[in-house]
Specification:
By secondary structure, the protein is of the alpha/beta class. The chain has 6 helices and 18 strands. It has 3 domains: about 5-95, Beta Barrel (Elongation Factor Tu (Ef-tu), domain 3), CATH 2.40.30; about 110-210, Nucleotide-binding domain of ferredoxin-NADP reductase (FNR) module (Rossmann fold, 3-Layer(aba) Sandwich), CATH 3.40.50; about 230-310, Beta-grasp domain (Ubiquitin-like (UB roll), Roll), CATH 3.10.20.30. The longest helix has 13 residues, at about 115-130. The radius of gyration is 20 Å and the shape is globular.
């Protein structure tokens, strides 16, 4: 997935601390198709690359829109967008990747916390267009900081907004209830919200809950970090991965060009097909059933439970 230059068409104020950016092709060409839940990798500078969910209409092939929260402790990305980015600037953007896509279901429940509303908006639009029932709980610390709160999509009996500074609290277990057969529950937001949702989902039918995290899940301190070998089926080479090294970094050191971005197991850019061996998944993307299938892995963080892995590289 190569980067393409896109023009910043406009920058909109969406809420306190949240800007949205419209991106278009400089030559006016249509942009690649995408589906609800997708994100893009954006190179903001030579040293800053970030992932942002697309929050616009997938049917609009002329403009992609992302929204950026001004982080209180910024690593440079959100500060750059809020302080330096201007309409007319060019940004390098990869084609959309979707690790949070909608699966077919008879009904949907959405839970969004803060900037986690961004991938949920296109999902609601898609479900509405299909004529399927849905409910949304949109949670925020401050009403003034809840982006897209006035979007017509959320002006529906199925959408409920909960702003903590207005004294609006949610009983998540009570609001969701026990999802009926086939109900799909999608949740995106801060770690505390996702941890709570995953705790509830332990009693639900497998595959009911799908989450998207902006930060990696903390890994247990006692995980095995031994050496193993990676055999690259297409390249015909074998690479040793030692303690404290990632598969990705070792492949790069061996001269292999492997797509990557976050290097934290949250974006999915480095997803690689696994041909042989048993992985130790350490990403924050794959659902339990996807991990059990054992046919893909995120090589930026995951390791091996067997002495060797064979990858489709």
């Amino acid at each position: 997935m190569e980067f393409r230059p896109l023009r910043v068409r406009d920058i909109r104020w969406e809420a306190e601390g949240v800007l949205s950016i419209g991106l278009t092709d400089p030559a006016g060409r249509e942009l690649p198709p995408w589906s609800a839940g997708a994100h893009v990798d954006v190179r903001l500078s030579a040293a800053i690359e970030r992932q942002f969910s697309l929050c616009s209409d997938p049917a609009d092939r002329r403009t992609w829109r992302i929204a950026v929260l001004r982080e209180e402790v910024s690593r440079g990305g959100s500060r750059y967008v809020h302080e330096a980015l201007r309409p007319g600037d060019l940004l390098d953007v990869r084609s959309p990747v979707n690790n949070f896509g909608l699966r077919p279901a008879p009904r949907y429940v959405f839970v969004a916390g803060g900037i986690g509303i961004t991938p949920i908006l296109p999902m609601i639009r898609s479900v509405r267009d299909l004529g399927l029932p849905w409910r949304l709980a949109y949670l925020g610390r401050r009403a003034a900081g809840m982006a897209f709160a006035t979007d017509p999509l959320l002006d529906s009996p199925g959408a409920q907004l909960f702003a903590a500074d207005r004294g609006e609290r949610i009983d998540l277990a009570g609001w969701i209830g026990v999802p009926g057969d086939g109900t799909a529950v999608y949740c995106c937001g801060p770690r505390r919200l996702l941890d709570a949702a995953e705790g509830l989902a332990a009693c639900w039918a497998p595959g009911t809950l799908r989450t998207e995290r902006f930060q990696p899940v903390p890994q247990p301190a006692d995980q095995c970090d031994g050496s193993f070998t990676v055999d690259c089926a297409r390249s015909g080479c074998s690479v040793a991965v030692g303690p404290g090294r990632s598969i990705l970094s070792c492949l790069e050191a061996a001269g292999l060009d492997v797509p990557s971005s976050c290097r934290e197991g949250v974006c999915g850019t480095c997803e690689t097909r696994l041909l042989e061996g048993i992985p130790e998944h350490r990403d924050s993307i794959l659902a339990p059933d996807e991990r059990a299938a054992g046919d893909v892995m995120m090589i930026c963080v995951s390791r091996a439970r067997t002495p060797a892995l064979v990858l489709d590289i």
